[in-house]
Amino acid sequence: MTAIKIPTSFNIHLDFEIPPFHKRLLAWIIDLFIQIFYLIIAHKIYNKLYDNSGSSFSNPYDTWAIGLMIILPFFIYHVVMEITMNGQSIGKKILHLRVVNENGGKASISQFIIRWLIRTSDYMILMVIIYAPLQGPYILYALLGSILLLITDVTMVTTSDKGQRIGDLLAHTIVISTYSRKSMDDTIFLEVPENYIPLFPQIMQLSDRDINSIKHILDSANKSGDFELAEMASEKIKNHLKISTSLSPFEFLAVLLKDYNYLSVN
């Protein structure tokens, strides 16, 4: 498993593990199986409704609309899952993978949408499935296109330093392993009492990327007991925000996260 170092906003590098290709492939196969299983079930339901109606739908637009409703969940599966499951689909969750931005923080909705729009292999394989019963060149074109696009994605993932396919490059996202870094399952959001009094309102001067960096640095420092890492980050933040405090580095970073969570919703 390849490890990469990502610089944070405070010039401190964090280590992330890039999963091997076979894990990403297996996660993709699991997701594809779920999508195809859905199509089979949806198709059977459609046929049952069609049979019960006794005849075809009177309006061809009704048939088109129903077909679109059936196929739509297949197309939006990945983007909906990744947005609602914090960068994971069912396959990625099973294989302990997650999509994050290139800074190691939570990817934005726009980034999830961009990488979804540039998906290639999934949709081309669907075309092969749909056109398989047909005769003529259509199935050959679909099959050839799916193979070429699949080869492109595989080549990009296996040869790029960060294991990025075309969609990841354009969206500025990477897929990382979360199995050995359980702290990555956490978000920057913490439960803070309603009567909490923030100590450092200056924290709101920092960007979302900065807050993600603080969270990751604190998690890494706590996990390894790395006092120097926490102290280095604390000093940089104090200097940047012009804060003076006697709190220890670990306490200071933890308070900053609490302050941010309180002030961001109040």
Word description of this protein:
The protein is built from ten helices and four strands; from the N terminus they run ββαααβααααβααα. Helices cover 60% and strands 8% of the residues. The strands form two sheets. Strands 1-2 form a two-stranded antiparallel sheet. A hairpin with a 5-residue loop joins β1 (2-7) and β2 (13-18). It has two domains: 2-177, no CATH class; 186-263, no CATH class. It is elongated. By secondary structure, the chain is mostly helical.
Low-pLDDT regions: 181-186
Q: What is the helix/strand order? A: EEHHHEHHHHEHHH
Q: Which geometry do the CA atoms define?
A: elongated
Give helix % range.
55-70%
**Average pLDDT, all residues:** 79
Cross-sheet strand order for the largest sheet: 1-2
What radius of gyration results from the CA coordinates?
A: 24 Å
Largest sheet: 2 strands, antiparallel
Please report which band the strand proportion falls in: under 5%, 5-15%, 15-25%, 25-35%, 35-45% or over 45%.
5-15%
Instruction: Please give the number of β-strands.
Output: 4
CA-CA gap between termini: 42 Å
Number of helices: 10
Structural category is mainly alpha
Number of structural domains: 2
Short structural description:
The protein has 266 residues and is mainly α. Helix content is 60%, strand content 8%.
Task: Quickly list its features.
mainly alpha, 266 residues, two-stranded antiparallel ribbon, 4 strands, two-stranded antiparallel sheet
